[in-house]
Amino acid sequence: MIKIAPSVLAADFSCLYEEIKKIEGEADLLHFDVMDGHFVPNISFGPVVISSLRDRFSLPFEGHLMVANPSQWIVPFARAGCDMITVHREACEDPHQLIALMKKERVKVGIALSPATPLDTLEGLLSEIHLVLIMTVNPGFAGQSFIHEVLSKIRNLRDLKKKGSFSFEIAVDGGIDEKTVQEVVEAGARILVAGTAVFGVPDPQRALVKLKEAGSGSNDSVEKDRS
Ligand code: DX5
Ligand code: ZN
């Protein structure tokens, strides 16, 4: 099964509630891109935006923290209402400590890898986490082009998962649209974060359905789930 996580970064912030309402019925989780102007050259929003939306939607919220000091932000974002928090491996000095903090706060644990970061940086962590988010663009902005070279990393992660019988989910983020969706699903991704392809078109709900259909049409979306 393919899950789609619309990224609100690509929504119209002047009417965020209405934008999310449009896709609420079809989305599997909501992806919030948090940027601090240090880890990435952009600033987005903080926990107050998430807490103001939290009670209005029953969808799971994922906070994708593109911040230089994630240990400072896990508690505020957990308490703002995130069900899952994804931190960047590149920003974690002590990932075990961060994972323990997330578990203490009762949020699911995600770790993101920027395109240049190899999979071996996850060594010793894979049995501890719920999600690996493979960035298919360099983090910082919505609307960038998909980096095809990352496909082999997704395939290798799928193989590692199978070999080790791990239960983490494989997510991809950046440049996902109807053209790239099939490639990432065939490579092993099951959660697809999509911003521009959902919120940048006149009918976001229809775009989401079409993305899901395109992903579910891939043979691998069913076969690999059974294996
Ligand atoms: C990039 C963000 C992505 C981005 C996705 O730093 O992590 O979630 O908003 O947007 P699109 O789908 O437009 O690449
Ligand atoms: Zn993201």
Keywords:
eight-stranded parallel sheet, binds D-xylitol-5-phosphate, alpha/beta, TIM Barrel, 8 strands, 227 residues, binds zinc ion
Structure, explained:
- It contains nine helices and eight strands.
- The chain is of the alpha/beta class and about 230 residues long.
- It has one domain (about 5-225): Alpha-Beta Barrel (TIM Barrel).
- The chain has an eight-stranded parallel sheet.
- Strand 2 (about 30-35), helix 2 and strand 3 (about 60-65) form a beta-alpha-beta unit.
- The radius of gyration is 16 Å and the shape is globular.
- D-xylitol-5-phosphate binds near residues 140 and 174.
List the helices and strands and how they pair.
Layout: E1 3-6, H1 16-23, E2 30-35, H2 47-54, E3 61-66, H3 70-80, E4 84-88, H4 95-104, E5 108-113, E6 131-135, H5 151-164, E7 169-173, H6 181-187, E8 191-194, H7 196-199, H8 204-216, H9 219-226
Parallel strand pairs: 1-8, 2-3, 3-4, 4-5, 5-6, 6-7, 7-8
Helix pairs in contact: 2-3, 5-6, 6-8
The chain binds D-xylitol-5-phosphate (DX5) and zinc ion.
